[in-house]
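User: Run a structure prediction on this.
Assistant: Running it now.
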Amino acid sequence: MPVAIDNHCPWKTKCLALQVVSKLGPSLNSKFALEVLDLGLRDEVEEVRTEAVISMPVMVLWSVLDVPSHVFERME
């Protein structure tokens, strides 16, 4: 299902990017994921910063514990 992005609200796109990056797990370069997280934490919009903070535990679980994908499917 395609996701419609509102061009007038770039913060929504940033939030979506943080959600996607946090769920890609080990298939993503950890340096890239940390850069996206850092950008989110430093963003001027509160919603983006909040999404970055919410995404942090998921990124930690993926990187440290090597949690299988079926665990995250059950969490959703």
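Residues 11-75 form one domain.
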